[in-house]
Design a protein that fits this description.
Blueprint (H helix, E strand, L loop, with lengths): L2 H36 L3 H17 L3 H35 L1 H9 L3 E5 L2 E5 L6 E3 L23 E3 L8
Helix pairs in contact: 1-2, 1-3
Keywords: Membrane, Transmembrane, Transmembrane helix
InterPro entries: HSP_DnaJ_Cys-rich_dom_sf
């Protein structure tokens, strides 16, 4: 072995030893960051960071601590990505539906939000009831059209007069 090979071997040994000493510190920093990525509530993130740091400290070996922290940060990054995609799709759906929402608001329809979809309902349908005479089939005595509902099977409540 030449002198340069011995020097490289010694330097690499020292670097590996230093990296192993840095690994627990780096693991603690990574789990704190993973908790803040995973939880939007700051107090919940702080509590979870303390729990994960205690878990990392209980792990045997320096490299196992680092590997566990890398797993936590990977899972947090995936969860953060999923949250970002949900926020983006939700805002995109909101932008796409603004024309329909404006029309529904002008018509005074009720708008129901169900995740990424919306439902629109005309409140006038709430005033329609089943005819009590023909029970909704539209036929009265001797199979003639019902006199109460004129064969529609439904009745409409009267609209209250609008206040001026």
């Amino acid at each position: 072995m030449s002198g340069s090979e011995v020097a490289v071997a010694v330097i690499l040994g020292l670097l590996i030893n230093e990296c192993c000493d840095i690994a627990p510190w780096l693991a603690r920093m990574l789990v704190k960051r993973s908790a803040h990525l995973r939880y939007n509530d700051r107090s919940r993130a702080e509590t979870r960071a303390e729990e994960l740091t205690a878990f990392i400290n209980d792990r045997p070996g320096k490299l196992l601590k680092l590997a566990t922290a890398l797993a936590f940060i990977f899972i947090s990054l995936v969860a953060y990505g999923v949250q970002a995609i949900r926020r983006w799709t939700s805002s995109a759906v909101d932008r796409l539906g603004t024309e329909d929402q404006a029309f529904a608001s002008l018509q005074r329809w009720t708008i129901g939000h169900h995740g990424t979809t919306r439902s629109y309902r005309d409140p006038r349908f709430d005033r329609v009831i089943v005819c009590v005479t023909c029970k909704g089939n539209g036929r009265g005595d001797e199979d003639w059209p019902c006199r109460t509902c004129q064969g529609n099977g439904t009745l409409k409540f009267l609209e209250p007069p609008e206040a001026s």
